[in-house]
Amino acid sequence: MVRVYDLGHSRAGDKGDTSSIMVVAYDAAAWEVLRRELTAERVMAAYAHIARGPVTRYELPKLKALNFVIERALGGGVTRSLAQDMHGKSLSTLMLTIELPDGNRP
Amino acid sequence: MRKPLRIGAGAGFADDRLAPAVELAASGAIDWLVFECLAERTVARENQTRQKNPELGYTPYLPMRFEAVLPDCLKNGTRILTNMGAANPPAAARMTRRIARDLGLGDIACAVVQGDDVSELVRRRPDLKILENGEPVESLLPRMVSANAYLGADVVRQALALGAPVTVTGRVADPSLFLAPALYHFNWDYDDWQRLAAGTAAGHLLECAAQVTGGCFADPGKKDVEDLARCGFPIGEVAADGGVVITKLPDSGGRVDAATCTEQLLYEMHDPASYITPDCVLDITDVELTSDGKNRVRVSGARGWPRTPFYKVTVGYTDGYIGEGQVSYAGINAVGRAKLCAEVVQERLRLRGFSYSETRVDLIGISSLHGERPNQPEPYEVRLRIACRTENRKAAEAVGFETRAMHVNGPAGGGGASEPSVREILAVQSLLLPRELVRPEVFIEEGG
To answer: For residue A35, what is the domain's CATH number?
Structure first.
């Protein structure tokens, strides 16, 4: 298994009750693993105790990046959330804790 | 071939640092200094301020920022553009003129964009649908404190054409604020979608200031940022043909490379093929970020499509209060004592007759940011945070009051309780308004 942390970096943004979190691969080999293994289902499972979803996944091969849009993730919306981190800025680092199979990685 | 226009970002949010903008102003290396200072609910908050005092309602740090940069900007011929006008751009312009006079800079012209306030229009259209849930806006109207349309670069261009050294606006879409100087300077057509796309992509990269120059990025040992303490703000070089380079002052801290630019390019984007602004629909799926030297990144491949016939409108409304308290525990069974504390506080609130529509208990150090996770070892120390939502201000005040009282009335060894906190909630929702209903105007403010 390999951590997303070792494959790429991440930042989270917010719009209303939606968190958008991207993962950018460090190199081409990491990109192949991320593209194959970091599915919307895996991301939804990692955030299931925080967000109700759904999760939409976008691929950006030229930037070696994935963009995940996670709905109903911010406690009803940034401006009314009871959370300490109302914007969900720290949610990017939860993405990096996900572990993926890395079968084809040299 | 005309030289590229150099646009500096002076702020990425209302409470941003001051030093990087001062450095940009002093450098003389930029044609424009653009301050983007309006989060979603800033205008709602400032509208409340304006209702108390008609000469306020601009962002509170406007005087501090302008006192710091006006002398150098006027000396160097750097023009300033900002949305710090918030809920009251004319008053912001008058204050700006007063500051200039007080600094001995004389009587400066200040251009104003207004007309983003569409609250009267929204009141007349209770049928308009809230984007997030499809419900009519009608139920929010009694609690509405503001409704502002995100204006585009076309309106701002008209204001820039008035030639003033400073232009203040209210709500303008963040990337449009950076596109506008290029649109004006190069006289691009407002249906030249490729150039609008290039300028919008540049604007999106610049709008959060340090977030493209090494802010919100460092992870020591893994992703290092040189001299983060002195992290500078970005400069966008925009050419007449839509070529874009993102860079920063050479002697500032931070880093500009494909990694920082990719994070910011995708920041707060949903579908990367369809990023909607008032000016165009931007598609970044073919964008490439290539090195153009140290701390220089070339941005190419942005595609643009015709704008939609709507303005997005943010409706701000009051939504009760959040009361909050915090207290810390350490040592053996710290977590057990923090959990007992949370139970007791909630029971005491109930005994006082208060009820809450939503309550959140956080164990800071365990579950406050990423929620409860399996197989987590108990930390040596933990900070309890209780936050409750209510329509009743007294009930909100009681949350922090009862938490602080746990020093003396709670489990053993509770310390460092916070001052009780109560926040009036200003919530926002979005809707779409047909463009032709909105009538923005631009003028030179003579008063102040």
So the answer is: 3.30.70
From A14, A15, A60, residue closest to B272, measured CB to CB:
A60
Interchain proximity A20–B270, CB inside 8 Å? yes
| Amino acid identity, position B7 | I
d(CA B207, CA B10): 9
**Shortest CA gap A104–chain B (Å):** 24
Helix (H, G, I), strand (E, B) or coil at B178: helix
The partner residue sitting opposite B370, judged by closest CB among A15, A79, A90, is A90
Q: For chain A, say whether B348 makes contact (Cβ under 8 Å).
A: no
Domains and CATH numbers, chain B: 5-116+151-308 (no CATH), 315-430 (3.30.70)
The verdict on residue A105 lying in a domain is: no
Render pLDDT for B37-60 as a digit per residue (tens, 0 to 9): 998 889 999 999 999 999 999 999
Tell me which of B77 and A76 has the higher pLDDT.
Answer: B77
Number of folded domains that form chain A: 1
Query: Does residue A10 fall inside a structural domain?
Result: yes
DSSP string spanning B395-424? HHHHHHHHHHTHHHHSSTT-B-PPPPEEEE
| CA–CA dist A85, A19 (Å, integer) | 12
By residue range, what is the domain housing residue A27?
A: 2-100
Q: How confident is the model at residue B89, as a pLDDT?
A: 98
State ipTM: 0.96
B230 vs B343: CA distance, rounded Å? 45
Is the bond preceding residue B54 a cis peptide, omega within 30 degrees? Answer: no
- Residue B426 sits at the chain A interface (C-beta within 8 Å): yes
Give per-residue burial for A42-79: e unless 16+ CB within 10 Å, then b.
Answer: bbbebbeebbeeebbbbebeebbbbbbbbbbbbbbbbb
